[in-house]
Amino acid sequence: MEPAPAAPGPRLGDSRGAERAAASSSLNPTGAEAQPRRRAPAVAAVLPAGGSGERMGVPTPKQFCPILERPLISYTLQALERVCWIKDIVVAVTGENMDTMKGIIQKYQHQRISLVEAGVTRHRSIFNGLKALAEDQPDSNLSKPEVVIIHDAVRPFVEEDVLLKVVTAAKEHGAAGAIRPLVSTVISPSADGCLDHSLERARHRASEMPQAFLFDVIYEAYQQCSDYDLEFGTECLQLALKYGHINAKLVEGSPDLWKVTYKRDLYAAESIIKERISQYICIVMDTKEDENHVGHHLEEILKNELNHVKVTSGALCPPCRDLEQIILEQCYNYVCVNVMSFDFEETRRLLNMLKESNLSVLYPVVVISVYFLDYKSVPFDQKMENLMQIRDYAKEVKKRNILLCGLLIYYPQDEQKLQASLRQGATIIATLIKERNSGLVGQLLVA
Amino acid sequence: MEPAPAAPGPRLGDSRGAERAAASSSLNPTGAEAQPRRRAPAVAAVLPAGGSGERMGVPTPKQFCPILERPLISYTLQALERVCWIKDIVVAVTGENMDTMKGIIQKYQHQRISLVEAGVTRHRSIFNGLKALAEDQPDSNLSKPEVVIIHDAVRPFVEEDVLLKVVTAAKEHGAAGAIRPLVSTVISPSADGCLDHSLERARHRASEMPQAFLFDVIYEAYQQCSDYDLEFGTECLQLALKYGHINAKLVEGSPDLWKVTYKRDLYAAESIIKERISQYICIVMDTKEDENHVGHHLEEILKNELNHVKVTSGALCPPCRDLEQIILEQCYNYVCVNVMSFDFEETRRLLNMLKESNLSVLYPVVVISVYFLDYKSVPFDQKMENLMQIRDYAKEVKKRNILLCGLLIYYPQDEQKLQASLRQGATIIATLIKERNSGLVGQLLVA
């Protein structure tokens, strides 16, 4: 069978990539005719997602557990679909979760996804995914790839780098998989529940995901394998070895490849995601020219206090090109500095830009509207009543996954006290961005 | 050598425990004379804590990484020392961390801890700990235990239950260790980095901690073992097998036994700890008698919204016995309801009780001081100026690890609107308790 027509190929990096591709053709373990082609392989991915989540101790299957209100599997799909050379992504879900999965694909605007029905075991689900990719399925839009990636729905942090490594190695060796060092020693128990022997930790590895295979290798292995394999097996690399006689290439993966298994893993995943989307903060200034603008002071202090975070500034003066660019760069944190006004005009313009951009479809966007006041000379008067409207704005934009808070920063004449106020303000901004908790939207905090 | 004199023994549960103790005496694998004694064994614990934390990707060794500002190892020590039948806890730390460790013991008031110098490997550190427990150390206050627990400094969630299981099994079998099912398939690579074979997941287990040994068994094993074992070994059960010919009893552990290894594990540990200390909330009422008291409404709503959380109420009317009892029960969350007043008298009395109790030594205590106002008829006036003093109180008690916030809840005449206000207040209270972030102390939030 001919491989599928050319697809956007992996970025193999010019000549070195071409060499490898040529080398892998000549090493093609399927025995297919070695052609002197230099194009990258057509790649698809299969995700078994039929699990029940029993180890999690929660009723929802773990791939559907929410992280920042979005199901875990959506993060994994996002990680795969942003890799442009993965042409098709086939997800195997149980019949009862089919509608849930369709809803997720629609809500989070996932692309290139096909759904198949999961089997009762992991291997059967993968087999169903492979069958859908095989050319002999008449009712399918999918075409048979040269290489297929198999990944877990519950490993959301897979990077393009490791995907490329396993695909490249699979093209050369027929099969490849990510591995990690063992964290615990592995032992073999005897029948009476005592230690029989322990394995030398340095000589063993944990087999992780992603794995990749020449499609024909793994599809033939699944076609040949026994019911026992399909029922009790856990390891695709083992099938390639047993039925295709292929010793898979092992590729060292990063710690982030771990599998979300227990409730604590959900906590860890949430913290990692929160940390990642907190690494870029945009200070939106209501005026651009003045270098002594207090917004610039705040920007400097944020840069000092959050020294791992990229802090930039943009202005709302039309045509707002820099701000549009920052939104395109997926900045999820905005500090809208209002020096001259005590109203929501600037904030509303920012919120409208964010709403139009659809940025908050995947992650909650934090917007903090900052005002300056001298508490003694401007007590809680009409201006404050204006600001209390923030509750209504916050309620409205929360529906769009935008978390709006207000922050009042004292602006004393004394330079040292002002610095202290601004530092306190920066601490509150950092907390709101880090926690990203919808329970505090609409609050007016005071620094 | 005679076992050490009787120590507070494990709660073996009356007759069944006595039977086991008798049985284990007769099965004593050290060959010591089987005595018809029914007392529980003297138990000590050894914690190797000499690791460098390289896998964590941070400069601080992982056992000293802070969780809610307290080092990880302090949580592990707390888990061991609350088990009254563990007589001594020997911690092996490197020379350069000796002072850090002494500071931790003093600051968090740890008891029954002895420090020894760590070796360059895990096995050498454990051996140093065992030497300190052996009776032939003339300058030691420690006495040789019958059973020794070996645990990791970076497994903070060990429960008394599993400690008792491994100790009981060690007394019977000579050695015992906690195990867990494998999360990933384990494979064996060939020399050229390809798959040689994969292990059947169901036939293997991950060896976790705690483990327990008859002291003589493990001490003799360490005395006999080779330099190679001490340098490259990772598994104490393996030493007991190799040198003591003892097949350790394997005890199924809970998922919480996992080892904090990567940065994500610190995130997970922090979330677990935050969740645990958020399970008990005390509503402190300023008046007890009135059943229509709005504090009771708030209590009901909190009970409904947080249905896994124990919500109770206490009063500050002297002699405050119920409140003292609640503090003794280690409640870390207080909602101080002020209906009649707009000052901090009640809150200050609560804060003083908390300070005297020393409750906040181990965990940050959240105190939320709640006031009710009708925004329209009581605009931000003198009363508000009073309440702004919360910033100063919050700053002061934060030094004592108490996180104080204020919460203003609208109190409209309309019953339905009041319910909405109270629900909003409950959401904010739940957020502050869950996040436990010191960045928001001193804020006056509005529901």
From TrEMBL, chains A, B:
The organism's place on the tree of life at top rank: Eukaryota
Catalytically driven reaction(s): D-ribulose 5-phosphate + CTP + H(+) = CDP-D-ribulose + diphosphate; D-ribitol 5-phosphate + CTP + H(+) = CDP-L-ribitol + diphosphate; D-ribose 5-phosphate + CTP + H(+) = CDP-D-ribose + diphosphate
Principal location listed in the UniProt entry: cytoplasm
SUPFAM superfamilies assigned: Nucleotide-diphospho-sugar transferases
Known EC number: 2.7.7.40
InterPro entries xref list: IspD/TarI, ISPD_C, ISPD_synthase_CS, Nucleotide-diphossugar_trans
PANTHER family found in the cross-reference section: D-RIBITOL-5-PHOSPHATE CYTIDYLYLTRANSFERASE (PTHR43015:SF1)
Enzyme class of the recorded protein, top EC level: transferase
One of the record's GO molecular function terms: D-ribitol-5-phosphate cytidylyltransferase activity
Pfam families per UniProt: IspD, ISPD_C
Domain D-ribitol-5-phosphate cytidylyltransferase C-terminal: from-to ranges: 279-426
UniProt name for this protein: D-ribitol-5-phosphate cytidylyltransferase
A GO biological process held by the record: protein O-linked glycosylation via mannose
This protein's GO CC annotations: cytosol
Localization annotation: Cytoplasm, Cytosol
Bias-annotated ranges (Low complexity): 20-34
Designated gene of the protein: CRPPA
PROSITE patterns: ISPD
Record note on quaternary structure: Homodimer.
Family to which the UniProt record says this protein belongs: Belongs to the IspD/TarI cytidylyltransferase family. IspD subfamily.
Region Disordered: start-end pairs: 1-41
Alphabetically ordered keywords of this record: Cytoplasm, Nucleotidyltransferase, Transferase
Pathway entry: Protein modification; protein glycosylation
